[in-house]
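User: quick one, sequence for these C-alpha cells?
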C-alpha cells in the first residue's frame, strides 16, 4: 500500500530472481504502478480486489517519500545489496509504518472510489499452523504475532467502509505442498476457494 502510493523509485543492478512473475512483482512495486493501473483498468473491471497478504511487511525508504515493500521477492532479488547504501527499513507494526500506511490507503481508496466500481479487500489471517500441524514462524516470529500487529490496519479499512474478507484461524492453514514453498501466506486450496467465492458474490451484487 505504501509503495503503491509513493513516487516511482530507483533500484540499480541485476535481479537474481529467475521467475518472470516474481521479477514483475518487484519491478511493479518499484514503479509504484497501482494508482495508474486503477485509472487505466477501471472501464475493464467489474470489481477491484485489494489483496493485502503482503501488507504485513515493512517498507524500505529508497528516497525521501519513496518506498518499496520488504517482500521475499525483493530480498531474494539481491538488488538491495547492490546499492551504494542499503535503504532504511521501516518495520511493519511501528507507529511510523502505520501512519504511512493509513495515508497511502486513504489515497488508494479515493482513487478506487472515483471509478464507481465496487471494492473488496482480502485480508486473511496468516496461518499459524500448516496442514500437517506444525507451528509457523516467519522472520523469527510466530504468525500469531504478525496477525496481532495487523489488527489496527484492518480496523482502519473497516472504519473507511470497506468490505473486508478476513478468514480466521478456523479456516486458514498453510499448505506444505504449495508451489512457492511453506509460508504463513501460502494457503491450502480451501482458503483460496473461500476468497474466490467472496469475490464472485461481490461481482453479482
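Assistant:
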Amino acid at each position: 500500500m505504501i509503495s503503491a502510493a509513493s513516487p516511482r523509485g530507483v533500484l540499480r543492478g541485476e535481479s537474481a530472481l529467475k521467475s518472470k512473475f516474481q521479477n514483475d512483482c518487484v519491478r511493479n512495486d518499484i514503479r509504484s504502478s497501482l494508482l495508474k493501473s486503477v485509472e487505466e483498468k477501471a472501464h475493464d473491471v467489474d470489481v477491484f480486489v485489494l489483496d493485502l497478504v503482503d501488507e504485513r511487511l515493512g517498507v524500505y525508504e529508497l528516497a525521501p517519500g519513496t518506498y518499496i515493500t520488504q517482500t521475499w521477492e525483493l530480498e531474494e532479488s539481491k538488488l538491495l545489496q547492490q546499492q551504494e547504501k542499503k535503504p532504511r527499513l521501516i518495520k511493519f507494526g511501528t507507529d511510523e509504518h502505520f501512519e504511512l500506511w493509513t495515508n497511502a490507503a486513504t489515497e488508494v481508496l479515493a482513487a478506487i472510489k472515483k471509478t464507481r466500481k465496487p471494492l473488496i479487500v482480502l485480508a486473511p489471517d496468516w496461518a499459524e499452523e500448516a496442514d500437517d500441524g506444525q507451528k509457523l514462524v516467519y522472520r523469527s516470529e510466530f504468525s500469531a504475532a504478525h496477525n496481532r500487529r495487523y489488527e489496527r490496519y484492518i480496523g482502519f479499512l473497516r472504519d473507511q467502509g470497506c468490505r473486508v474478507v478476513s478468514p480466521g484461524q478456523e479456516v486458514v492453514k498453510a499448505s506444505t505442498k504449495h508451489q512457492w514453498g511453506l509460508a504463513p501466506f501460502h494457503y491450502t486450496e480451501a482458503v483460496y476457494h473461500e476468497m474466490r467465492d467472496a469475490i464472485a458474490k461481490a461481482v453479482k451484487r
